[in-house]
Amino acid sequence: MRWALVLFEVRHCAGALCFLPVQQCTGPLIPPHQDLVPVPELPEVETTCRGIAPPLLGHQVEKIAVQQSRLRWPVSPLLARVLPGQTLAKVERRAKYLLLTFDAGTLIAHLGMSGSLRVVPAGTPVMPHDHVDILFSHHRVLRLTDPRRFGGFVWTEQQPLQHRLLKDLGPEPLSDAFGADWLFSHVSRRKRTIKSFLMDSHLLVGVGNIYANEALFLAGIRPDRSCETLTLAACQALVAAVKTVLSKAIAAGGTSLKNFVNSEGEPGWFAIELAVYGRAGQPCTRCGEAVRDVRLHSRSTFFCPNCQC
Ligand SMILES: [Zn+2]
Questions:
Q1: What local confidence, expressed as pLDDT, does residue 16 receive?
Q2: 282 CA distance to ligand 1 middle (Å)
Q3: Between vectors from CA 9 to CA 144 and to CA 36, what angle results, nearest 5°?
Q4: pLDDT average, residue stretch 169-185
Q5: Can you name the CATH fold of 180-303?
Q6: What number of other Cβ atoms are within 10 A of residue 94's Cβ?
Q7: 64-68, 166-170, 251-255: segment of lowest average pLDDT
């Protein structure tokens, strides 16, 4: 009975063990069906980067207001002391992290599972899931909203790419560093599945579950295929597929940029056309065979048994 209770209660909180009733727990919430919740992936973070930079670059921070400090990482009280007076010099993305570089250091931001960063006019009412406001001197606010509180900020005065969160990450999928030769040399002699390889951020960043499914379908490779069986030609197809799928999503995101600079509505995730993800039992868009779904490494995995081998 006690163990049943523990197992049930642990599910709602990201803490190691949480015995509080769900209503009293202030830990980050774990969604009941993680795979079905659209989480910000590389294209959403890239679009956020492009959306928040123009209205804020070159402007000075006036103050920071923290409504809820218990996020993925506790919001450091240091921020309220160091940020005011500093000018935002650069906004970049590395993997799913946003790097906001100021005069004296860099604010590393992560959107977690449900976070969004938007620029709103000063005085915009704070809603229940709005946790951190950074007020700039031109009366614009960078606002972190995050119902599940897996997002957060970390301040660093060191080289941000050397920070412990970033230093061991794999190459960017849209950069030249991710090419067929690179992939071929890294899959050789690896026995793990190619889908888990794609989703391992120490090997390659920014390819989440949906995009891994879609890229493997486009390349004609089964998600559960062992890495070591991939030929150079298969690696070429897969690299091209990953770049195509992510680029399309970023292009779709461009149309929603306005959502990052007003207070209306949600910065909705991109309505890209999914060829295979979430289509279990439906006819394959290429051959008509029913799309199959399996759990692979506890993640929803979809493929066409005819088009992918
Ligand atoms: Zn098919």
A1: 31
A2: 10
A3: 55
A4: 97
A5: Helicase, Ruva Protein; domain 3 (1.10.8)
A6: 19
A7: 251-255
**CA 287: distance to chain centroid?**
32
Active site residues: 40-41, 96, 299
Looking at every residue in the chain, the average pLDDT score rounds to: 84
Residue at token pair 């976070």: 115
What's residue 38's pLDDT? 62
> Strand pairing partners for 116?
145
Q: Which residue has the tokens 């599910």?
A: 11
Q: If you measure from the C-alpha of residue 290 to the centroid of ligand 1, how many angstroms do you get, rounded to a whole number?
A: 8
Token pair listed for 249:
């999503």
Work out whether the CA dihedral 22, 24, 25, 31 comes out positive or negative.
positive
145 to 54, 149, 256: CA distances (angstroms): 20, 8, 17
Cα(303) to centroid(ligand 1), Å: 8
Output the CA 292–ligand 1 centroid distance in Å: 10
- 130 strand-pairing partners: 145
Q: 294, 296, 295, 292: which is closest to 304 by C-alpha?
A: 292
CB atoms within 10 A of CB 145: 21
Q: With bands split at pLDDT 50, 70 and 90, how would you rate the model's confidence at 237?
A: very high
Residue 89 has pLDDT above 80, yes or no: yes
The domain segmentation of the chain, as residue ranges, is 42-162, 180-303
Q: Is the pLDDT of residue 167 over 90?
A: yes
Q: Please, what sign has the CA dihedral across residues 97, 300, 216, 210?
A: negative
> Do 180-303 and 42-162 have the same topology in CATH?
no
- Looking at domain 42-162, which CATH architecture does it have? Alpha-Beta Barrel (3.20)
β-pairing, 299-303 with 292-296? Answer: antiparallel
